[in-house]
Amino acid sequence: MTRNDDLEPTVARRTAIAAAGLGLVAGCSTYGGAASPPPAAQPPKAAGGTELGAAADVPVGGGKVFADQQVVVTQPEAGTFAAFSAICTHQGCTVDAVTGGTINCPCHGSKFKIADGLVANGPAAQPLEKKTVKVTGGKIVLT
Ligand code: FES
Fold first, then answer.
1. Which residue's alpha carbon is at the smallest distance from atom 3 of ligand 1?
2. 95 C-alpha to center of ligand 1: Å?
3. CA 66 to CA 85: how far, in whole Å?
4. pLDDT (tens place) for every residue of the chain, 143 residues total
5. Distance between CA 15 and CA 30 in Å, rounded?
6. How many Cβ atoms sit within 10 Å of the Cβ of residue 72?
7. Which one of 6, 102, 111, 131 counts the least CB within 10 Å of its CB?
8. Rieske domain: from which residue to which, for each copy (predicted)?
9. Which atom of ligand 1 has the smallest separation from the CA of 93?
């Protein structure tokens, strides 16, 4: 008897865990499947894209990292903007600075040219992925 008494709480716990797991699966389906995050998790969207910030915050000859959106925007020449993924192509760190004409990764020292995202200094071997932005009403919009 003592042996069966010891097993009952374990079985009940397993049943409760299984039921909780089914509840989680059912909860995911209310958001349209596991691949779609709930609407609150979506980044804010401006008309025609995601607004990143003021164009005036991106210096000429430099750039700005928008870490939340994982995008870096540069302005190699006055009025000309470029944008790239902020994910370093070496091992996936997020670039954290734009100085001296390059976009810089803090992890192993890779540097990428602000005009085209090409590698200026390794160990990265591939350029940063290009993104598309436009300036509307003084705001940078990721399209
Ligand atoms: S992850 Fe950027 S240099 Fe290694």
1. 108
2. 8
3. 10
4. 444 444 444 444 443 333 344 333 333 333 434 444 444 445 555 557 899 999 999 999 999 999 999 999 999 999 999 999 999 999 999 999 999 999 999 999 999 999 999 999 999 999 999 999 999 999 999 99
5. 23
6. 29
7. 6
8. 50-142
9. 1
Fold type of domain 45-142: Rieske Iron-sulfur Protein (2.102.10)
Query: What is the token pair recorded at 3?
Result: 């042996």
Q: With contact defined as beta carbons under 8 Å apart, do 133 and 52 qualify?
A: yes
Place of tokens 């994910």: 87
Residues in contact with 28: Cβ distance below 8 Å, sequence separation at least 6, in sequence order: 34
Task: Report the residue among 107, 111, 119 best suited for mutation to probe ligand 1: largest number of ligand atoms under 8 A from its CB.
Answer: 107
Tokens of 10: 């374990």
The pTM score is: 0.68
